[in-house]
Amino acid sequence: MKNLQNLNHLLTEFYDKMASWEQSVVKETGYSLAQTHTIEVLGNHGPLRMKALAQKLAITTGTLTVQVDKLVQAQLIERCAHPDDRRSIVVVLTEAGQVIHRQHNQLHLDLVADLSRNIDPEHLQVLQSCLAKMNQEF
Questions:
Q1: What is the CATH number of the domain that holds 92?
Q2: Does residue 113 register a pLDDT over 80?
């Protein structure tokens, strides 16, 4: 039980620090955290239907519609007809959206490099394995 309490404390502390870092980084861009996360998911997964994108973001399609409208106005994403189902709409990053994604992704890579610089490769491998298993539980 003590191990679970310690793990809970460490994960919560890490989440809080990561969320604070993310908020400070996003604040400098002029885009909201929700908009940045939408760009991030599209950059990582490619064009998605609205329902699939909403699921990946863990938000409703109604909430997503508001985000998409703002990002379309900012010319960072566009709505397109699905290539296999013309009745369906997919959202895709524009060139400007891809630039934002690459910049934000690089910030994440730089952070991970900084955080892991004093961890030996074997421990990093174990950490990756553990996080992958934990992510599968969601």
A1: 1.10.10.10
A2: yes
**How many angstroms separate the CA atoms of 87 and 91, rounded?**
13
Provide the residue range defining the domain that includes 37: 33-136
* Residue 82 phi, psi (nearest 5): -65, 135
**Percentage of residues in the chain with pLDDT exceeding 90?**
84
Task: Give first-to-last CA distance, the chain, whole Å.
Answer: 22
Q: Is 26 inside any structural domain?
A: no
Q: Answer whether residue 78 is part of any domain.
A: yes
Tell me the H-state helices in the chain: 2-27, 33-45, 50-57, 61-73, 95-116, 121-136
Question: Strand, coil or helix: what is 93?
Answer: strand
What would the pLDDT profile of 54-98 be if each residue is shown by its tens digit?
999 999 999 999 999 999 999 999 999 888 887 888 999 999 999
Domain count, the chain: 1
Please indicate, yes or no, if residue 87 is contained in any of the structural domains: yes
Q: Is residue 2 in a domain?
A: no
- What are the tokens at 88? 């369906």
Cα–Cα dist 60/111, whole Å: 30
